Each structure stands twice: as C-alpha cells, then as structure tokens.
Amino acid sequence: MYLIGLTGNIATGKSTVCDILTQLGARVIDADLVAHTALRRGTAAWRALIEAFGYDILTYDGTVDRRKLGAIVFNDATKLRILEQITHPAVGAELALLIRDALHAPAAGAILVVEAVKLYESGIYEYMDALWVVTAPRAEQKRRLMQERGMNEADANARLDSQPPVDEKLNRAQVVIDNGGSIEDLRVQVMRAFVQINPETARDKTALLQKWLRLETAPTATANAASAPIENAMPASTENAMPASTENAMPASTENATLAPTETENASAPTETENASAPTETENASAPTETENAPATASAEWTVRRARPADARMLAELLARIEGRNEAIGRAEMLERLGKFGYWFVRAGDQTVALAAWQAENLAAIVRELWAANDADATRAFPLLLEAIQTEANALTCEVVAIVVPERAAQLAAIAAQTSGYESNTVEQLHKLWRSVIEPLLSAKTTLYTKQLREIVIKPI
Q: Mind listing the domains of the chain with CATH numbers?
C-alpha cells in the first residue's frame, strides 16, 4: 500500500484535496474523526481531561465540548502541553491500528492518505511514501476562516499567527498543491500528482507500525475481574506521543485534528465504504437465534469492552440481525449511532455473546438495547455489561440507570434486572428530572427497570 502523508496549515483546503483523492480512488483517513474517537465518553483520555480541566468542558450528555476545550488551551502553552500529553498517545495508537488494518483488509486499495497538520513536525512523514503539502495565500486562509467558519478578524489572525512555518515542509515535500485559486485548478493539480503515483514503489510499513503500536492501549481485563473493566487505559508512557501542535489541539475546527482515527479487531472503519457492513438478506431476516450463536464454551476466556469506532462493520452487521433488517446499516447511520450510544460487548474468545447500548441525559443513564446469544450467556454477561455502564454513568455523575429496551428484548431486560439488582418501576415513581428523559422512551408494552446510583441533586448538570 502506498501511503501519502498530507499536511498543510489551517484553511488551506486539505479536506477538499482529500475529497478529490477519494473520488480518484484513494482511501483517506479522516483526521478530525480521531479527535472525537480519542475523547469518547468514558475513555481514559476523557477521564484525564476532566481531571485536568474540570467538568465544565463537557456537554449535557457528557461528551467533550471541543470549542470550550480549545478556548481553554489556545493561549496557554502549559495547558496545551497537558492536552497533548493526554490525547496524543491515544490518537497515535488508533492511527497505527487503522493503518495496520488497512494494510490487511481484503478490499484494501492501493493508496492510503493520512491527513495531519503536524505530520512534518512530528517526523511521521519519514514513514510515508510521499509528503504532500497544501498551501494557500494568507489572505485566502483568512477569508475562509471568516466566511466559512464564522471567525471575526481578530480570531482569524490569531489562529493564523499560531500556525507552524511552512517553508521546511515545502523543502521536503514530494508534492505541493497550491489551493489559492479555483476548484478546477485544484482538481487538475491533484489529478496530475495522482496519476504519477506508482504503488509498486511503496515501502514496507513494518517500521511505522513498530513505532506507533507501542502506543497501543492496554488489553482488556477479563470478565472474571471483580468488576467490569473500563478499557482504553492511557499508555504507560507519553514518550512516543504525537508532537505539540497548537492547531492540532484546537478542537473547535475541522482542520484541527491530530492524526487520524481508529482501532479495530480485524474490521475496517465505516468511512471506507458507504455501507459499513453488508450482511446478506438472509442474515438480516431475523435476530440471531441460539443456533446461530451457540453458547460460548466454558473454557473460553470472557472479556468485556467498549465498542470502538472501527468495530462498526461487525457492530452494523450484528445490529441489523438483531433488528431483523433486510438491508445493511450504512455508514452514515452507523456513525450517528456510535455518536449517540455507547456500545459494550462481552466476548468469549473471538465470539460476541452479548451486547448493551446506553445513553445519558439529565442525570439518567438509559440502557436502550440488550442482546445475548442465549439466556445462559445473558445471565452471565449482563452483570458485566451493566457494571461497566454503571461505572461510566458514575463518572458522569448520573443518579440512576434505567433499562428501557425494545419489546423484542423484554425477556433479556428481565434477566438483566434480576441478575444486576434492578427494580421494576413505573414512570410515576421516577424523579421529575429523570422522568423528563425516560418517559418519552416508554410504550404501553415497555417494562421499566431502574437502579439508583446516588442521592438526587438539586438540578441537572
């Protein structure tokens, strides 16, 4: 696989160049998605950010408000370094895993593009087969920041002044794209450079993976532990972290990601194709049965972990089968779901035996989906899944966990409640703050189970 490192300062039009490369058949790693991935609710990096910058950086549902975080670190070098020390190791690990899986994907393309603002300064470009640099006149960058991103003139100038110098990058670049003119001029430049690529000249990627996979997150604890573990612990060292970057740290902008997303277990991120997975119509016809998913052997080691964005293909296929869908879940829908819900798996060896999905709002954590291969696995797996969800809910200062699942999962909800200490409840018994978000999810056939985690506070966070 021929690996292009594409870089350039803010508002030079890197995303537009990536769009053109995608149209030409290249696979592009979305540089912005990795920031969302690395700071997903409940990850170790997410917790570290809260510890460093406080709960004020969170939105109502517990996700990181990147604009608030960017405003905090933009003019404070010390806080910027703290941010980078927290996020860069996780980002680097996910990038390495994504490249690794792209190399081994059955349908892998011949050309992969990695976009990153600090590609050159980090030295990462040395592992690429080619360095592409996108440029634009400062006046055009300023115009784009003001007209397309709504910045005032002072903010636009401040952002431009914070950018690293481009001269050294240009001296090392194999391809320089001038994006100061029309889209037609840009497309011609990109096409001319693209047709000159010879994938057979691609270098071996072993050194690249050896460097970055040292940042890989710690392995998941087994399900036999005292409680369900929260995965994605921070690496023990930040020695190999991505380098400091003012632009990379500014989550307020889509130009501002560090390197690119995600990790996977023999799956590809959903951005590779419009449809993240393509289960057959027969597979989609009904939810998995016990015969389709035989009980895990007693000897298999059980683990519990959060779904990663690059699990999207496997997750999309499983959800389509659970929901009895006759078509695959497409990329856009799967990404929307991953942004809305936190998914947890229990795995027995390489087999998924149980799944739970949840969301949080107004101090209530709500389990919205439960599935298990069979009742025996459900009895063993659901306490692990709910313990993991309760741990994340506690981190968000949620006061209650409610199980509100579709009718098809009613029996599984009863198993989960019985094995994990949840009580059957009516909506009238709920505190009004919880009730405001839980009641709209209920139907006449829905059974509600709840577990209170803490004392009720005066108002929602």
A: 2-213+223-249 (3.40.50.300), 270-452 (3.40.630.30)
